[in-house]
Amino acid sequence: MSLEKYQNFVKKTDTSSLFVIDNAFPKSNYIKIDLSKDNQDLKKVDITSSREMENYIHEYISNHKVQVAFGGYLEHRNLYQRSAHFNKQTDPNDERNIHLGVDIWKDAGTIVLAILEGEIHSFENNTNFGDYGPTIILKHQFEDVEFHTLYGHLSLDSIANLKTGQKVLKGETIGKLGDASVNGDYAPHLHFQIILDIENYTGDYPGVSSLNQLDFYRKNCPNPEEMLGL
Cβ of 58: how many Cβ atoms within 10 Å? Predict the structure, then answer.
């Protein structure tokens, strides 16, 4: 599907009513957080430690007197250097370190919602170190507009009783956020990503791009903040 067609769909959608985590947390209580390589505060944090990152994010949320932190689309991060899953290349421009989704930072156990009506496209526990852990992909079809949404870093029980093709409603609970023991060793959060062409992937799709592949992925994975009204 074309990027233009998707963008026109978003423009006609009431994004204020769309949530991907518990809608008890109003969007007025969200704050953007910078986890890029340019954030000097992260030099004081062991970013390889999920516990230290969780403490950093909790403190950031608390200091700003809000409930949820979000951000990260096309953010260039050093965080992925800890994992060979992203770091097998010799050419620096092939290193995967540019984030393709938006992260919603909230406690483990927070419920995760389907952003729109659709069906279960696929699901998987992606167990590489630094990977998504339990992941759900939904397929959405509205007349001639088709796209997919990916929900990563979930709890194990989120994918325990799913079936491919299962229908979901807008705002329906589809899972919960996992903790570091199951979510790829991250501070608890949701990785939410829009995918226009799912290609041949099931239960997984690249959530981090290299510089060399960025032109393709930024067109195939548009900014989720627009869909979320953030």
Answer: 15
Q: What is the pLDDT of residues 13-44, one digit of tens each?
A: 999 999 999 999 999 999 999 999 999 999 99
Helices vs strands, H then E, count in the chain = 4, 12
Q: Please give the Cα distance from 152 to 150 (Å, whole number).
A: 6
Coil, strand or helix at 226: helix
CA dist list (Å): 224 to 93, 195, 227: 24, 10, 5
Give the residue from 22, 6, 9, 35 showing the smallest Cα distance to 190: 22
129 neighbors 191 (Cβ within 8 angstroms): no
19 near 111, Cβ under 8 Å? no
Query: Does residue 87 contact residue 81 with C-beta atoms inside 8 Å?
Result: yes
Question: pLDDT class for 91, splitting at 50, 70, 90?
Answer: low
* Model confidence at 204: pLDDT above 80: yes
The neighbouring-strand residues paired with 81 are none
Confidence (pTM): 0.94
Mean pLDDT calculated for residue range 145-162: 97
Say if CB 157 and CB 178 are below 8 A apart.
no
d(CA 148, CA 140): 6
Give the list of residues 6+ apart from residue 145 with CB closer than 8 angstroms, or none. Answer: 1, 5, 6, 9
What pLDDT sits at residue 134?
Answer: 98
pLDDT, one tens digit per residue, over 93-142 is: 778 789 999 999 999 999 999 999 999 999 999 998 889 999 999 999 99
CA 130 from chain center: how many Å?
13
